[in-house]
């Protein structure tokens, strides 16, 4: 059995899927213990804080981090300061 999934004996993983890597950074950048926050000098990345621990995360290619929605959005919606 596959752990956590009843009646599943095995799992096939698609090797073509590439996950973006998080980069662990200094925890003092977290404005709050949990949440996402913009990276001041790079609109294509954001800081994800979990229990006070910070990771820098990239948005997918062709997107930017929107501080208002706290999501990565398509570049057609990006402000002029984000290239």
What can you see in these coordinates?
This protein has 83 residues and is mainly β. The chain has a domain at 23-74: Beta Complex (Antimicrobial Protein, Tachycitin, Chain A). It has no helices and six strands. Strands 1-4-3-2 form a four-stranded antiparallel sheet, with no helix packed on it. Strands 5-6 form a two-stranded antiparallel ribbon. Strand 5 and strand 6 (71-74) form a beta hairpin. Mean pLDDT is 80; it is low at 1-5.
- What is the H/E string? EEEEEE
Largest sheet: 4 strands, antiparallel
Low-confidence stretches: 1-5
Major sheet: order of its strands?
1-4-3-2
Q: What would the principal axes of the Cα set say about the shape?
A: elongated
Helix content class: under 10%
Proportion of residues in extended strands: 35-45%
User: Could you please say which CATH topology of the domain at 23-74 applies here?
Assistant: Antimicrobial Protein, Tachycitin, Chain A
CATH superfamily of the domain at 23-74: Chitin binding domain
Mean pLDDT: 80
Number of strands: 6
GO cellular component, one term: extracellular region
Protein name: Chitin-binding type-2 domain-containing protein
Keywords: Chitin-binding, Disulfide bond, Glycoprotein, Repeat, Signal
Pfam families: CBM_14
What brief labels describe this structure?
mainly beta; two-stranded antiparallel ribbon; 6 strands; disordered N terminus; 4-stranded antiparallel β-sheet; Antimicrobial Protein, Tachycitin, Chain A; 83 residues; elongated
């Amino acid at each position: 059995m596959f752990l956590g999934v009843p009646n599943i004996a095995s799992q096939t993983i698609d090797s073509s899927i590439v996950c973006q890597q998080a980069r662990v950074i200094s925890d003092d950048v977290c404005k709050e213990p949990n949440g996402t926050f913009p990276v001041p000098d790079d609109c294509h990345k954001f800081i994800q804080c979990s229990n006070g621990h910070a990771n820098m995360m990239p948005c997918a290619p062709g997107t930017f981090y929107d501080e208002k929605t706290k999501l990565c959005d398509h570049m057609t919606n990006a402000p002029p300061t984000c290239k």
